[in-house]
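Fold it.
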Amino acid sequence: MERVVPDLIGAATARLSVPEGQYAILSPEAEDAQDSVPGTGEVAATGLFAAGTDGALVITGTDHGDIGIRVELWSGAPAADDTAWEDVVEDSYTATGTAHVHNVEGRPAGLPDLAWSGPGTYRMRVSVRGRDLGADDGGSGPVPVEEHLIQVWPAPEAPPHARKLSDELGETWRREAADG
């Protein structure tokens, strides 16, 4: 049986200001949009991100500064390149409307709608590198040292899956969650 290769529907790159070491993916038109974003306790299990209905939260190493972020919209699950990234985590996101990347101050990143196929359930794969450097650098240089890739495709709901966990920041979050 031949494997069907998914299509890349769209992609965009931006520089995102991340005050407070995190950013959100949310549906701005949803009632209580900010309340739909998971808390840091839910993120601690993977040390990177958690998603749910109309909200996701991603933890950055850069506490106050800029990160590089790329969004890719796919027709199906893209091949994973775990070698180029330090942490890679997948989770399901259910969109009742649109889904946009925002910093925690509510400013949109200017990236495309992640719920590109309309309301429904999507799989999100967040891959990061440079979070430990971002924690040291502060994200104030001319080129961000921390990079994030968000790949999104329509898919049935499934539990979170950590494909790769290797950076020190994520390990600290996971250890603190385990210690309670």
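Helices lie at 40-43, 131-137, 168-179.
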